[in-house]
Design brief:
By secondary structure, the protein is an all-alpha fold. The chain is built from 21 helices and no strands. The chain folds into two domains: 238 residues, no CATH class; 217 residues, no CATH class. It is found in: Cell membrane.
């Protein structure tokens, strides 16, 4: 919130907070699988598939019900702040809060009462999914309010409350779902469907706790916010109808693009069983297992690293929007370069690292499954494209290139739809992942081309730095794979305790190798700034 901060410092600090919140939340969201799976027992594959199907529908409704307004509010608050119109931004926020409350009620009701129709559309008519969808509808009531509170604070580039609330939200959610599952499955020997229903209802519990955290954060910042408002320009003469129009004009692109990955997942969910039956002779249970491997289990793990790009996207939007409002074209070009370099600096080693540790990672969370490990490895590579799409779409929206961003996404989704059937024919259960990678590659290429044509950022500088990132990531990757080969060659691949130890060892090794190389060559300094010098002194790396 300090106006003297450089955009690079703001980007790094905001990304650090959002990355920490996202990573810890995602890790916690993956760790719960271990006891949850154990308590589900033999029902785990069916419970897992049911959970995944309900959550994909919920994700879509969540994005629609929040209507992209958090991103739009963040973008517009930053816009007004850049013009010293803090009071106008506050008026916009209050109006947006009314809209979000209304949206929560409407879409929560649609999801609850329309659960049978949604089950028919998205779960092949599975009646077990109806109570799951209804339990998630309750969360849709209040999460729009949670989202706009986060968007308001993010508009001031104040990412700490969002990150902290995100982590505490996950803690509350996981505690509730584990207690409920234990009581239903272990104590009462009850139905796994009831356990899944309570596990999904936990989203409401987490959201309620997070709202409380954000309200406290807002109250603590209220004196400073009031001071900024008093010292800034008076409230602009804008009526509520104009505010509504302004919010939704900026929100609609966020709806479509924030839901981009979810649209891809829902298309997989809706077509996988039917398309697979054309080429594979498999039972419904086998198809559920195949879908669960990539659609839920692998997806849950790769979203840990995709959340890194989400953190950068959330941070970049208010920064770029503020620069755009001031008309700083050169600063925008420099900020786009910084954003892309930071993305690849983190995402490439994270992706290759997850590929390298896929075997102990999968065994730790789900028990050893050779097909599952392959799914995770392939998904890890695709995560770079998913993350790049997240960042590029946010950058285009921050720079008011909304329609083009949507058009390019639609092109990519059409490519995905066209490629789906032939890819399943060629690669069977891997087909949806291949089709996703093709569609996302098209979207990312179109978005990069558009960005560079309007804001010709320094591709030579970015290419040189990405080359170094790829080289050092490959050295890290090879080091970890050698350890992986040696350990599992001698001890086998199915012991969960050994896998946990190996996972920690390999993650530490990968971090040390990559960290040493980027510090030794000063690549980290060029991307992260002069503050890295402190780290070099601490570890005596010259």
């Amino acid at each position: 919130m300090d106006p003297e901060d450089s955009s690079q410092d703001t980007m790094l600090r905001g990304s650090a907070w959002m990355t920490a919140g996202s990573i810890f939340s995602r890790i916690l969201g993956a760790i719960y699988i271990i006891p949850w799976m154990a308590w589900m027992g033999s029902y785990y594959p069916a419970a897992n598939a049911l959970f995944a199907k309900g959550y994909n529908i919920y994700s879509l409704f969540l994005i629609i019900s929040t209507a992209g307004i958090p991103g739009a509010i963040s973008k517009q608050i930053s816009h007004y702040n850049a013009l010293d119109q803090y009071s106008t931004g506050n008026k916009l926020f209050k109006h947006g809060l009314k809209i979000m409350t209304f949206m929560g009620v409407i879409f929560g009701a649609v999801m609850y009462f329309g659960a049978p129709v949604l089950a028919t559309l998205f779960t092949d008519g599975d009646p077990r999914s109806i109570p799951v969808i209804k339990s998630l509808a309750v969360a849709v009531l209040i999460i729009p309010i949670l989202s706009i509170l986060r968007g308001y604070l993010q508009g001031y580039s104040d990412m700490a409350p969002s990150a902290i609330s995100q982590f505490i939200e996950q803690i509350a959610r996981v505690i509730y779902m584990l207690i409920a599952t234990y009581i239903i499955m272990v104590v009462n020997k009850g139905s796994y469907i009831n356990a899944v229903v309570q596990s999904t209802f936990a989203a409401f519990i987490g959201a309620a706790v997070a709202i409380g955290i954000l309200i406290l954060a807002l109250l603590r910042r209220l004196p400073k916010l009031r001071r900024l408002s008093r010292n800034g320009q008076p409230v602009a003469d804008v009526n509520e109808n104009n505010f509504t129009k302004e919010i939704f004009e900026q929100a609609v692109p966020f709806i479509i693009l924030d839901a981009g990955i979810t649209f891809f997942n829902l298309y997989d969910q809706s077509t996988f069983n039917q398309f697979m039956r054309l080429f594979v002779n498999a039972t419904g249970a086998q198809l559920d297992n195949y879908y669960s491997l990539f659609g839920f289990q692998a997806n849950k793990l790769i979203m840990i690293i995709v959340s890194l790009s989400t953190a950068m996207a959330v941070t970049a939007v208010p920064i770029l929007s503020g620069l755009y409002s001031k008309g700083n074209k050169e600063d925008i070009e420099d900020q786009i370069s910084n954003t892309l370099e930071l993305f690849f600096f983190i995402m490439i080693p994270a992706s290759l690292g997850m590929y390298a540790v896929a075997q102990p990672l999968w065994t730790t969370f789900y028990r050893y499954d050779s097909l599952g490990v392959l799914m995770l490895q392939f998904s890890s590579v695709i995560s770079i494209l998913l993350g790049l799409f997240t960042v590029l779409s946010a950058v285009l929206q921050a720079l008011y290139r909304n329609r083009l961003a949507i058009k390019y996404f639609v092109y990519g989704f059409i490519v995905k739809v066209v490629a789906q059937l032939p890819m399943i024919w060629l690669f069977h259960e891997f087909g949806p992942l291949v089709a996703t990678s093709i569609g996302m590659a098209v979207v990312c290429w179109l978005m990069l081309r558009e960005l560079h044509s309007v804001y010709p950022f320094d591709t030579g500088r970015i290419s040189r730095r990405i080359s170094g990132i790829i080289l050092f990531s490959l050295i890290m990757f090879i080091s970890v794979m050698i350890v992986n080969f040696i350990v599992f060659h001698f001890v086998g691949n199915s012991d969960r305790i050994i896998s946990v130890v190996v996972l920690i060892l390999e993650a530490g090794l990968g971090g040390v190798v990559y960290g040493y190389l980027v510090l030794k060559t000063s690549l980290a300094d060029k991307i992260l700034g002069v503050r890295v010098e402190r780290i070099r002194r601490i570890f005596n790396i010259r």
